[in-house]
Write a structure and sequence with these properties.
The chain has about 350 residues and is an alpha/beta fold. The chain has 2 domains: about 190 residues, P-loop containing nucleotide triphosphate hydrolases (Rossmann fold), CATH 3.40.50.300; about 120 residues, no CATH class. The protein is about 25% helix and about 25% strand. It contains 8 helices and 17 strands. A 10-stranded mixed β-sheet has the order 3-4-5-2-6-7-1-10-8-9, with helices on one face. The protein has a 4-stranded antiparallel β-sheet with strand order 12-11-13-14, with no helix packed on it. Strand 13 and strand 14 form a beta hairpin. Helix 1 runs parallel beside helix 2. About 30% of the residues are buried. The C terminus is likely disordered.
């Protein structure tokens, strides 16, 4: 069932010599097996003193870690005592605990520890981890942990991983910093392909079933946002600056202020295949009254908001519009605005509501 460690997994066991050692990254990437191998070695060779194993709950710790250890070394060498909060491995008694809420820190107050194993560290409250650091006071004490990535602002990444002294990166290279403020922590980052024992069909299926930000997190092992994201496949590359061919230029003015925005035109189409203009949010308090840079009047009457919409490289794309003003504006851009006026409801000659919130009369 278990195959010898190789590649990055083997390399991580050789580099796990710091006070803190954490395996993080993609699912099914051999993080757990690598960390367990190091933990079993530490149980036999580490300094004397109390040891601790932690999971989100005792049940998840048993399922994810202790049961795996039983399969590796047998029940005689790994005796889990349900209800006692202990497991005996290689004849050494180890406390077990869950850390699923802020009260978990009280469970380890007063302990003096020589070592600890932490499963799924990102599920712990930060207060528990900070308390654990104070408990590891035996000389030579070390801790070993595993986790899948969460958001880039998670406390574990910002407070611990980003300050690690050594980093075995996803591409297999090792980076060691000489920063005096770096923590005595070694970080090992994994991707799905780091586990050569997985069936090729399973790997391919897993890659097809995830996309967008979840592909980055669970397959590539990246720390990226996921919760609350509405569009999880957007392009993170910087947007093009300034108007280009096919864009409408919108100038919003009041005395002492000039605000310029670019509105996409022909490239966007609604579900009926018709072109439309994306909705733009502009402050209602802005007032018009100034002339355009080319000398044309933007709005001669003082209104709550005056905008001058024009497409420099397109014919017949000029309009002067008035947002929520008492005076209706004449719209010349029939291709973009006119069809909305024709479909809209109104009382005067096709008067309707423009998608930008502009009243238009064709």
């Amino acid at each position: 069932m278990f195959t010898p460690l190789a590649g990055k997994a083997l390399r991580s066991t050789q580099l796990a010599t710091a006070r803190g050692n954490l395996w993080e990254g993609a699912v099914r990437s051999s993080k757990t097996i690598s960390s367990i191998m190091v933990w079993l070695r530490y149980i036999r060779t580490g300094p004397p003193g109390a040891l601790l194993m932690v999971g989100k709950t005792e049940r998840t710790l048993k399922r994810n870690i202790i049961d795996v250890i039983v399969q590796m070394i047998g029940k005689k060498r790994c005796d889990y005592r349900a209800g006692a909060g202990e497991v005996v491995i290689f004849g050494r008694t180890i406390y077990v605990a869950g850390a699923n809420d802020e009260r978990a820190a009280d469970k380890i107050k007063g302990l003096t520890l020589a070592g600890a194993y932490l499963d799924e560290v990102t599920t712990y409250p930060e207060t528990f981890f900070q308390m654990l650091e104070t408990r590891l006071s035996v000389e030579g004490a070390q801790w070993y942990g595993t986790t899948n990535p969460e958001g880039p602002n998670h406390w574990l990444k910002k407070q611990i991983l980003d300050r690690a002294r050594l980093h075995l990166r996803r591409d297999g290279t090792v980076v060691e910093t000489q920063d005096p403020d770096a923590l005595d922590v070694h970080r090992f980052s994994f991707v799905l392909d780091d586990n050569p024992s997985l069936p090729a069909a399973y790997v391919a299926s897993l890659k097809r079933s995830h996309q967008g930000l979840f592909f980055k997190r669970y397959i590539l092992g990246e720390w990226c946002l996921a919760e609350g994201v509405i569009y999880d496949s957007f392009d993170e590359a910087p947007a093009r600056r300034g108007p280009g061919p096919g864009d409408l230029t919108v100038d919003v003015r009041r005395p002492g202020l000039r605000h310029r925005e670019s509105v996409r035109r022909a490239a966007d189409r609604d579900r009926r295949g018709q072109p439309h203009v994306r909705r733009q949010r502009v402050p209602a308090r802005l007032a018009g009254g100034e002339a355009a840079a080319d000398g044309r009047a933007v709005q001669r009457r003082r209104t709550p908001l005056a905008v001058d919409v024009r497409a420099p490289r397109t014919e017949g794309r000029t309009a002067v519009m008035d947002l929520r003003g008492p005076q209706r504006s004449v719209v010349h851009d029939a291709a973009v605005v006119g069809r909305h006026a024709r479909r809209g409801e109104g009382g005067q000659r096709g008067e309707g509501r423009h998608p930008l919130g502009v009243h238009g009369v064709r």
